[in-house]
Amino acid sequence: MFGRDIGIDLGTANVLIHVKGRGIVLNEPSVVAVDSQSGKALAVGEEAFRMVGRTPGNIVALRPMKDGVIADFDLTEAMLKHFLSKVNVKGMFSKPRILICCPTNITSVEQKAIREAAEKSGGKNIFLEEEPKVAAVGAGMDIFQPSGNMVVDIGGGTTDVAVLSMGDVVTATSIKTAGDQFDLDILSYIKKEYKLLIGERTAEDIKKEVATVSPEGSSNEMEIRGRDMVSGLPRTITITSSEIYHTLTESVGHIVHAAKGVLERTPPELSADIIDRGVIVTGGGALLHGMDDLLSEELKVPVFIAEEPMHCVANGTGIILENLDKMSSKKVKI
């Protein structure tokens, strides 16, 4: 039994693992529940996520990743070890090769931290690849041709925008406005407007169910429960899509601004290709109602949502691993 190749989408909100020959074998939240007294990890992933906001004082549910990079090294390592042992990929004689994705503008120190965490979790050769490039491959773009492809990857912690050609990033940017920021916007709006405290999970449910970024958005409404800040008692309110639309305007504006910035720095020949081919949106943020229409209107080019936006990066790692041997002659290991 030889070590297999593994692709890891080490996201701020979720970790996805792709194993060569098996496809995506794991998709769990990037959460670790820790005993604050002993510092011991008690639960990881789905099990820990269920504890968010529902634990006694000595147990805290933490996210070891922040804005696409490692915020807590030991917890990230513990989380990766747990996930890798869960998917059971260690060979008897050899360790697997691991390809991990990272945002485009992380520092060499942050890259080193990701590499070390993967090595300590049992990887042999660790390859780092830029997230939008992997997302584009996973979305089915042929980025190895001499033509322009543009991808907007809206994850949990970061939004990565890149124009790719000849298998590499031509222009790119990464901003720390993404899914988590949308959740915070919703939380603070409901706190300010209704004097109601809700948890992170409720905010995420609102984002998935009723949030829209299109002015002619859906007219959905949703009942939510939380704690009244005045009386301290539980209370139920109903919120609508149009309320959330106004709440998200500023954050979504940052993403539009970042995409415009990348287009402005793109060589004209590649810009012409993007008008023909359009822009592909990947990541969980692609599922936000009206995101494609808004981007299309602002960027003046066609915009498409990838088929399985949440899985693009993980699927892309699989495709790149397949081609790793062909590419490794020109691959630079950091």
From TrEMBL:
Keywords: ATP-binding, Cell shape, Cytoplasm, Nucleotide-binding
Residues given in the record as ATP binding sites: T12, A13, N14, G156, G157, T158, E204, D205, I206, K207, G284, G285, A286, L287
Keyword ATP-binding among record annotations: yes
Cellular compartment(s): Cytoplasm
One GO BP: regulation of cell shape
Role, per record: Forms membrane-associated dynamic filaments that are essential for cell shape determination. Acts by regulating cell wall synthesis and cell elongation, and thus cell shape. A feedback loop between cell geometry and MreB localization may maintain elongated cell shape by targeting cell wall growth to regions of negative cell wall curvature.
Family: Belongs to the FtsA/MreB family.
Record protein name field: Cell shape-determining protein MreB
Record organism: Salsuginibacillus halophilus
Gene giving rise to this polypeptide: mreB
